[in-house]
Amino acid sequence: MLFLVRSLTVFEGKKRFIEAGFPVNKYRLARSEEEAVNFAKEIGFPVVLKIVAPKILHKTDVEGIILNLQDEKEVSQAFNKLMKIMEKHDPSAMETKKAGIMIEEMVENGTETIIGGFTDKSYGKVIIFGLGGIFVEILQDVSFRLAPVEDEDAWEMVKGIKGSKILLDLLRMLAFQVGSEVSLSELGKQLAIDNKTVARYLDLFEKSFIIFNLRGFSRNLRSEVTRKSKYYFFDNGIRNAIISNFNDLELRNDIGML
After folding, report:
1. Rounded to 5 degrees, what angle do the CA atoms 208, 248, 27 make?
2. Within a domain: residue 255?
3. Nearest to 57 by CA among 96, 95, 13, 108
4. Domain holding 33: CATH number?
5. FRET partner for 92 with CA separation of 20 to 30 A, picked from 75, 169, 178, 198?
6. Coil, helix or strand for 200?
7. What is the dihedral sign for C-alpha 84, 89, 92, 95?
8. Does residue 225 carry a pLDDT above 60?
């Protein structure tokens, strides 16, 4: 027997979560500009707009997410922009009723995580939990357990990824200080870790091609390299994800850091 496997869109995924009893933020699927505006007013501002298309699974790769939209005009502009991106990357998407632009309630101050599962040839059903979003591949800080999982096992999985909070906080600090001089001691004090640990984490990020640093120089030849460095991100998309800002340039106040 042949089983055809496909990935669910974010819209289909949310419906599955609701069916399983998980709470989700408010959302609607819009297929026209008028629907997008009406749904945004129904949900309440600010809202997020996301592309929903069978062939666009990684939306950040095509700039398919626009955050923190505050009024009807911004929603209209965002809808039209995302529709053009969809037409470019998945021209036939709108032929199915499962495609469109999702209007979501803006949720802030949370930690993005991933929960999933797979079948191992030797051990059977396995459940995975870890940090989500762009950090899944970058940090690879995840926990595994054989199914079924009891409450105690689930809490142990959550506790197992706490070490990455410091890494995330360090990346956020660097993201908000792009182009500014930072020192190991200042970073260490704010994170409550020693300078050697900060240096190891920064080295990890550099070797992973997440950030690079430009060391400061002095006219004094005896001390050309200062103790402070300026850090930049190889990919501004990663920085945007860290600070949760995917808005157009005219809506941003950090253009000089990009």
Report:
1. 90
2. no
3. 13
4. 3.30.1490.20
5. 75
6. helix
7. negative
8. no
Q: Is 1 domain-assigned?
A: no
Alpha-carbon gap, residue 143 to 256, rounded angstroms: 39
Q: Which domain holds residue 157?
A: 113-162
> What spatial distance separates the first Cα and last Cα of the chain, rounded to whole Å?
52
| Cα–Cα dist 179/78, whole Å | 29
Does the pLDDT at position 110 exceed 60?
Answer: yes
Alpha helix segments (H runs only) across 133-183: 135-139, 151-159, 164-176
Query: Do 88 and 18 belong to one domain?
Result: yes
Residue 3 pLDDT exceeds 60: no
What's the confidence (pLDDT) of residue 78? 96
Domain tally, the chain = 3
Q: Taking Cα atoms as reference points, which of 102, 72, 143 lies closest to residue 12?
A: 102
CA atoms of 242 and 253, how far apart (whole Å): 16
Question: Strands 124-131 and 113-120, how do they pair?
Answer: antiparallel
Q: How many residues does the chain have?
A: 258
3-state SS of the chain: helix, strand, coil percent to 5? 45, 25, 35
